[in-house]
Structure formats: C-alpha cells, structure tokens
Amino acid sequence: MSASSIASAPLKTILCGEHAVVYGYPALVTAIDLRVRVLSEPLPVGIIEVLSEGFGSWREYALNVAKLVEKRRLKHPLQYPIVAVYLTSRYIGEEPGSRVVVKSPAPDGSGLGTSAAVAAACICATAIRYGFNLTPPMIANLVQLCERFVHETPSGIDGTAVTYGGTFVYKRDEGPEFIDAKPLRLVVAFTGIKHRTADLVRRVRRLRAKNREYVDTIMAAIGEIAQEAARAAVQGDLSLLGEQLHANHLLLRQLGVSSKELDRLVETALNAGSYGAKLTGAGGGGCIIALVDEDVQYRVLASLQNVSASTWLVVTNAQGVHREDISEQ
Ligand code: PMV
C-alpha cells in the first residue's frame, strides 16, 4: 500500500439530446478538459474523511457509512465521496481507512457531471493506493452505484463520460458508441443556479402525460438532431454543428426546461459570434455551451463573462479517469 495517490476525472457536457435520451433517443456526449482531482491518503482503519475546498470537511466511521449505503440516504454532499471510498475499499476487499482531498473546477448541480467525476476520481485514487488498478468497466460500475445516491435513475451518461472520456452517442438500452469526433472548442457558462436533474425529468414527464403527441414529436426531432450533430462532429463541420446545437436549444425550450437566464446566455453567445449555443444537461439552471473556434473564442468568452456566474473555455474529447503522477503535483 502506498502512502498517497492522486487520480483525476473529466467533467462532461451533453452536446445534444438531453431529456430525449430518457425516452430511448440518442444523445451526443463528450468529456471536457476540466478535471476533478482527488488525493487519497491513509487514515486508521474504520475512519473515512473528505476535505473539499467549497464544502469544508466531513469525517465518518465506516460503520455509519455502511448504514448510509443500506438506507441510500445522504444528509450532506460530502458524504457522497465518502460512500465512493467505502464502496471501493469493500470492492477490493480492504477495510476502509482513508482521507480524500477533492478539488473540483465546477460546483455540483451545474449539469457538468461533477458528482460522477468526483466518484470516479475517488474510486481510482483509493484503489491505486491499495495497489489495485481497476479496469474501466469496474470503475464505471462503481460510479453507477454511487450515482444512485444522487440521481433517482441515472442514465449512465455521466458514469460513461468520466470513466472512458472521448465523445460518444449514448442510447439508454444500448449504452455508448464512441465516435471519432474532432476536438471542439466550447465556452461553458454557468447561470449560477443549481438544478436537480430528477425534478426536471419529472417536469418533462408531466408535460408528456398531458400532451403525449406533442412531446413525442419534439423528442423524435431531438433524436434526429443528435445523430446529425454526431456526423457534423466527426467531419469537423462547425457551421452545421452550431445549427444543430441552436435547433436543439429551441426544442428544449418547447419542453419547458430552459429559463430566462439560460436563454439570455444563449442569446449573448450567438450575438458574440458563436457557431451555435444551447443549454446543456437537465436545464432549469445549470450551464450553456457555446461552440467557438480560435477566431471568436475570446469575444464569446468575454461577452459571457459579463452575464454569467462562471465561465470556462474548454476543449472536448478529454481523457477518462486516470492516475496522476504524484511528483508533478
Ligand atoms: O444535468 P445533468 O448532467 O444531470 O443531465 C441530465 C440529462 C437528462 O437527459 C435530462 C437526464 C438523464 O438521466 O439523461
């Protein structure tokens, strides 16, 4: 067992297809080069502790974590990485005793898959410290187990993106199909409003119950857009991809998951010369993405900085979860 280890996992963004993916249509998803980093250190057996810049610290006896896992009831966001460490230790047959220090570039509830990335990095760092190199399918399974504590029915998108990285078309019953997409530049802008995915999924379900034909037509159109966008991403056709992103945003508005804050950010990105922009993730708050190239990236970034809580200039197709060299930190 080594003294300490570090792992990192990427955040993700849904390029096209959110909500429709819940009803079996394809979504286009990519990992971005914003990474959650986790340092794992030994503690006496039976104690798990997490330290996080934004949330402070939390210490729990492994016995209590076992009860949380059984009841699937978390009282605090910091219990989530604790559960990830606990499940990993149990999985590899070790008695848990760890401190994890978590550094995330974006808050939870922003639609960028922060919770899954935290889980993946905690799982990878913990396993490495005990001398285990878990395979990606093992990590993806453990992330999915953890995700059930946060989302009622996680689709598997976030777990796939943070574990494997890259860009893929995801269908609920078929899983991911990785595509050879060109790396894209995106400006990601956060409204500052956190969302709860389950609430928005429920909102769409209620709308569908009232007006099934209308909602199903929108879902089918979103599915077409996601396939078309995947082809544009492979060809590196930014104009076409930008059009698809914007068309997808308008359809998500019709589903009632956009907001005046999201619409304002999308409008700002378009006016500043973005190829296309849309809300990403469940909506209601969270983030937008704006497709840019080297020529317009700083203009779009500067415009969005004036009206957003946070902004990031990112590149897609990032690597999945992996070990980091501790001497370079
Ligand atoms: O906001 P996020 O990253 O939780 O994305 C939710 C995407 C949905 O399609 C709305 C739900 C899902 O499980 O796929």
Account of the 3D structure:
The chain is built from ten helices and twelve strands. Strand 6 and strand 7 form a beta hairpin. With 329 residues, it is α+β, with helices and mostly antiparallel strands. The strands form two sheets. Strands 1, 2, 3, 4, 5, 6, 7 and 12 form an eight-stranded mixed beta sheet that branches. A four-stranded antiparallel beta sheet has the order 9-10-8-11. The chain has helices spanning 62-71, 79-91, 114-129, 136-147, 157-164, 197-210, 212-235, 238-254, 260-271, 297-305, and strands spanning 5-16, 27-42, 47-52, 56-61, 98-103, 167-171, 175-178, 185-190, 276-280, 287-292, 310-315, 322-324. The chain has two domains: 5-179, Ribosomal Protein S5, domain 2, CATH 3.30.230; 185-315, GHMP kinase, C-terminal domain (Alpha-Beta Plaits). The structure holds (3R)-3-hydroxy-3-methyl-5-(phosphonooxy)pentanoic acid. (3R)-3-hydroxy-3-methyl-5-(phosphonooxy)pentanoic acid binds at residues 18-19, 21-22, 111, 113, 155, 157, 197, 201, 281-282, 286.
The number of helical runs is 10
Name of the CATH architecture of the largest domain: 2-Layer Sandwich
Q: Bound small molecules, which ones? A: (3R)-3-hydroxy-3-methyl-5-(phosphonooxy)pentanoic acid
Q: What overall geometry do the principal axes of the alpha carbons give?
A: globular
Order of helices and strands: EEEEHHEHHHEEEHHHHEEHEE
CATH topology call of the largest domain: Ribosomal Protein S5, domain 2
Judged by helices, strands and strand pairing, the structural class is alpha+beta
How many β-strand stretches?
12
- Give the domain tally: 2
